[in-house]
Specification:
By secondary structure, the chain is α+β, with helices and mostly antiparallel strands. The protein folds into 2 domains: 22-89 and 106-241, Sandwich (Jelly Rolls), CATH 2.60.120.10; 246-324. It has 11 helices and 15 strands. β4 (108-115) and β5 (118-125) form a beta hairpin. α8 (266-272) packs antiparallel against α9 and α9 runs antiparallel to α10 (293-306). The model is unreliable at 1-6 and 330-340 (pLDDT under 50).
Length: 340
């Protein structure tokens, strides 16, 4: 049975001259964009000038880049011109998301600019041929301004969750977390701008007959408050994860090392169990237990004894108790029945 055809099956891997021409053309576009972004009135210059500003001030200062989009039209046109020259060229824009989910394409888009904790993206929320599953409501510490370039007939669902100053400062616990509340859906309007305190406000879209296109400016500085995912139907907290981008990268790396069974990397897992971010600490411990229960025992005992977060301490104590519980297989001391 033949595999499905793909344009990549015909990539000019044996045409060195064509590949060199593609690299040259892409490099020229990237250089032109870099110059445009770093001149005194350029996008990255404007972002850099706000490096030490509060999130609300950053949004206010960069809002003109949402309303005057001639720069975006110029950039997209130069990317399309590159593709018209050679369809195998890859414009110098970083893609994100857009995977397949439930038979439909998931939201994704392009990173237009990013520096520090400020990010400007062009997001496509694809239409759905059938009613999609309910998306979780995700709350991320920071601020956002989202301009609707094309509504696509989508319905907007806004979600809200209460948050105390103490929780925002690092005392968040799943047990005490408030429930999420959702507004009734309403039509998304082309040309409107959504301003969100993203630690307390979120949104999802019910796709329409056409793709929705959003220009999103987000400011997400480091925060002790985790990213929180809620079921918008019940309002129940589903999941928490580290909000620090560095912590997120490290947690993904640890998961990869665990899948690759790199037991020699156990010291990296142990080091992350001392992260300032409580969600990152517990993620590292869970991954270390799955990788090597023997290596996990001592740091788990330390976590159970004195971790500063009450729920991490409780989870560590409960898991530690299982270490002395033999598995049903009756195998030797290296076999432990551990929490999932």
């Amino acid at each position: 049975m033949l595999a499905s055809a793909s344009r990549h099956d015909h990539f000019p891997r044996h045409d060195a001259a064509r590949r060199a021409a593609i690299r040259t053309a892409v490099g020229e576009v990237a250089a032109a964009w870099a110059i445009a972004d770093t001149v005194p009135d350029g996008l990255l210059t404007a972002i850099t000038a706000q490096a030490n500003a509060a999130p609300d001030a950053v949004i206010a200062a960069l809002r003109p880049w949402l309303s005057d989009r001639r720069w975006l039209a110029t950039r997209i046109e130069s990317a399309l011109a590159l593709l018209r020259t050679d369809p195998f060229a890859r414009p110098p824009l970083r893609a994100f998301g857009g995977g397949e989910g439930g038979g439909e394409q998931a939201p994704g888009g392009l990173v237009l600019a990013e520096r520090g904790h400020v990010r400007l993206t062009l997001r496509v929320w694809p239409f759905a041929s059938a009613a999609p599953p309910e998306s979780p409501a995700i709350f991320v510490p920071g601020r956002a301004a989202i301009h609707v370039l094309a509504s696509g007939g989508a319905q907007l669902c806004r979600h809200h969750v209460a948050l105390t100053p103490a929780e925002e400062a690092g005392a968040f616990t799943a047990r005490a977390a408030a429930r999420c509340h959702s507004d009734p859906p309403r039509p998304l309007q082309t040309g409107e701008t959504l301003d969100l305190d993203t630690a307390r406000e979120s949104f999802t879209l019910v796709p329409g007959a056409h793709d929705a296109l959003l220009l999103e400016l987000t400011v997400q500085p480091p925060s002790p408050l985790p990213i929180r995912s809620y079921d918008p139907v019940t309002g129940r907290l589903l999941h928490i994860s580290a909000s620090s981008r560095d912590s997120s990268f490290r947690t993904m790396a640890l998961t990869l090392l665990r899948h690759m069974q790199h037991r020699d990397a156990a010291p990296l897992f142990v080091a992350e169990t001392r992260s300032p971010d409580f969600a990152a600490r517990w993620h590292a411990m869970r991954e270390l237990i799955a990788l090597s229960p023997t290596a996990a025992h001592a740091p788990l005992a330390a976590m159970a004894a004195d971790d500063p977060h009450p729920e991490v301490r409780a989870a560590a104590k409960a898991t530690l108790a299982l270490f002395n519980k033999p598995s049903p297989s009756g195998e030797g001391s290296e076999t432990y029945q551990l929490a999932g």
